[in-house]
Specification:
mainly alpha; elongated; 117 residues; 6 helices
């Protein structure tokens, strides 16, 4: 039995085509609406993080709009931050706190860099 287990390690795996292809497919399936919601949330986080220290007027506006959307606790419209997080199973307050902590850390790092320089 021990020798069989050792030899089994060196035998090729046999997979049917569907099993092989399944390893490259998404592990979870989202309805199209939730996929769109995830894309909206991702875009807002990218705009928020990428444009935090922007001096360009357009990029600064992207940051401010993303921050305003993230901080807004309104649930009156379908694609609000609160509703998107709830629909996707995220805690809006937890995500909001994490983004604000990230912002403060990044701004602190920038201030330290300016003081040292």
């Amino acid at each position: 039995p021990y020798m069989e287990k050792v030899l089994a390690l060196f035998q090729p795996d046999v997979l049917i085509r569907d099993q092989f292809v399944a390893t490259y497919k998404r592990r979870f399936h989202l309805e199209p609406e939730k996929t769109l919601m995830l894309a909206v949330l991702q875009d807002a986080v990218v705009c928020f993080q990428d444009n935090l220290a922007a001096t360009d007027r357009r990029k600064r506006r992207l940051f401010l709009e993303a921050q305003e959307w993230i901080m807004e606790e309104d649930t009156d419209y379908l694609y609000s931050f609160e509703n998107i997080c709830d629909s996707l199973g995220f805690s809006p307050s937890y995500l909001r706190r994490g983004l604000m902590s990230w912002k403060e850390a990044m701004l602190g790092t920038r201030r330290e860099g300016r003081l040292a320089g």
